[in-house]
Amino acid sequence: MTTPSAQIKGQTLGVLILAAGQGTRMVSAQPKVLHPLGGRPMISYLLRLANALKPAGIAVVVGHQGELVREEVEKAAKAWGLTRPITFIRQKHLSGSGSAVLEALPFLRRFRTALVMCGDSPLLTFDTVFTLLNAHLRDKTQATMLTANLRDPKGYGRIVKGPHGDVSRVVEETSATPKEAAIREVNSGTYCFETALLVDAVKQLKPQGPKREFYLTDCLEIIHQKGGRVLAHLAASGEEILGINTRVHLAKAESVLCRRSLERLMLSGVTIVDPAHTYADADVEVGQDSVLLPGTVLRGATRIGARCRIGPYACIENASVGNECSVSFSQVADARILEKCFVGPFSHIRPGSVIGPRAKVGNFSEVKASKIGFGSKVPHLSYVGDAEVAEDVNIGAGTITCNYDGVEKHKTIIGAKSFIGSNVNLVAPVKVGRGAKIGAGSTITEDVPDGALALARAQQVNKVRK
């Protein structure tokens, strides 16, 4: 017996993603499919899904700000894990989904089977689309559409079936009779077609509605009327078919993707104390036996190691955190925290920083574009910018690296086992030698030799009032 996966490999499959709409209900100057969702642009989810199916070709129909969409996709393709080339097709007249497919006919003709998806349906899962394809090939239908049963089908096209269960047509809500409007099975906007029949049907489309648009759903009715078999394949969950048309939909999709990410992490051995108040983007990874406390926000390509304790109220974005670290009440972005470090509470680790291993950045301290060495401590109320701090250095409270002269940034270098007293200003460029000590309250403008004690403060004068 032929397995479903073998059936797919035996076909020539082309995937077409419709992403030309202006998305006016988003009320945005940005193309709808580029709106961020779960740490990535919306369209990335469809492209990654298409890529995972290993089709013979992938095409994206663009229209409104099409060049911007193309540039973003081409720039980020490698980061999104896309390995197959992508063809971009410009829809010259934005007059419906049928018009978009008509523009794509030269691409589609190359394949026996066509999978058509909407670029604003980022919640579709690989399993659902894969089983849709399998059902289409196994049942040898001419068209198979993905549908869902919704408790509230408002706004969706209803699926009207014949006596044998075949789909006879899709009725838009505005045209539905009361009986048709009561149907809870709705159209998702995702379809598999026998390409030759799709090509023939799309040429017969006629403009419909007040906007005189060409609807791809009419192709299903044309294929059915000509004796073709059109079946519905029911999605396991209605949430998968959510199309993003407004910011309200965007927020709902963000919530679903976050829930999926947290479930994935919990099933891989991560403790999440309060999932309702913990947030993780789609590409976040967390190691086994780590604990995420309430208020934790993990964004972008963040990687957290094993046996870490993150939170409460930690925001980490595009950063890596090594094993056995603690980050609480702090913000970390585009930085690396190595193993067994303590960050927080109320620390700010800015881009380009490397902390540790076994280092500490504590209360109300900020580190920017700096390296903090093994076992070194920036415990409280300090700013370290554009600096290299070697191992076993103690930086006292209120220490500041004065790295900016009003024109350029300059570097501070602090040698191993140095001791920087409280309320010290290190005026860069400056170098503090190995084992040196800086007296509290000093303003250091010259290099300090290894092992030296540096004092740079005015002599105290006590005056007694008569």
CATH topology of the largest domain: Spore Coat Polysaccharide Biosynthesis Protein SpsA, Chain A
Q: Rg, please?
A: 30 Å
- Our count of domains comes out at 2
Total strands: the figure is 41
Estimated structural class: alpha/beta
Biggest β-sheet, characterized? 9 strands, parallel
Provide the CATH superfamily of the largest domain: Spore Coat Polysaccharide Biosynthesis Protein SpsA, Chain A
Strand fraction = 25-35%
Give the helix tally: 10
CATH class of the largest domain: Alpha Beta
Strand order in the largest sheet: 14-17-20-23-26-29-32-35-38
Roughly how much helix do the residues carry, as a percent range?
10-25%
Mean of residue pLDDT?
94
Shape assignment:
elongated
Q: Report the span from N to C terminus.
A: 108 Å
Low-confidence runs: 1-7
Write the layout of secondary structure elements.
Layout: H1 4-9, E1 13-19, E2 36-37, E3 40-41, H2 42-52, E4 57-62, H3 66-76, E5 86-90, H4 97-103, H5 105-108, E6 113-118, H6 126-139, E7 143-149, E8 158-161, E9 167-171, H7 178-181, E10 185-194, H8 195-202, H9 217-225, E11 230-234, H10 247-267, E12 271-272, E13 279-280, E14 285-286, E15 291-292, E16 297-299, E17 303-304, E18 309-310, E19 315-317, E20 320-321, E21 326-327, E22 331-333, E23 336-337, E24 342-343, E25 348-349, E26 354-355, E27 360-363, E28 366-368, E29 371-372, E30 377-380, E31 383-385, E32 387-389, E33 394-395, E34 400-402, E35 412-414, E36 419-420, E37 425-427, E38 430-432, E39 437-438, E40 443-444, E41 453-454
Parallel strand pairs: 1-4, 1-6, 4-5, 7-11, 12-15, 13-16, 14-17, 15-18, 16-19, 17-20, 18-21, 19-22, 20-23, 21-24, 22-25, 23-26, 24-27, 25-28, 26-29, 27-30, 28-31, 29-32, 32-35, 33-36, 34-37, 35-38, 36-39, 37-40, 39-41
Antiparallel strand pairs: 2-3, 6-10, 7-10, 8-9
